[in-house]
Amino acid sequence: xxxxxxxxxxxxxxxxxxxxxxxxxxxxxxxxxxxxxxxxxxxxxxxxxxxxxxxxxxxxxxxxxxxxxx
Length: 70
Ligand code: 9UX
Known about the structure:
Blueprint: E1 2-10, H1 15-26, E2 31-37, E3 42-48, H2 54-64, E4 67-69
Antiparallel strand pairs: 1-3, 1-4, 2-3
Helix pairs in contact: 1-2
This protein binds dioxo(di-mu-sulfide)dimolybdenum.
C-alpha cells in the first residue's frame, strides 16, 4: 500500500537545502514522490509501506542535516 507522511522540517535556510533534501528522499527505495518546501519547512512523502517506514524516512532527513519537529 502506498501511504503518505508529512514532516515539519527545521533547519533549512535556502532552496539548496530543500532541493538536496527532496533529492535524498526521492532516491530512497520505496519512495514514489517527495515534495519539500522551504517556507513552510515541510516534506510530503508518498511511500510504499512494505519497503520503507516513516521512522526510516525521518532518519534520512536527519542524515541530510535537518530536524523533524512535532
Ligand atoms: Mo543553502 Mo542549505 O547555501 O544545506 S544549501 S544553506
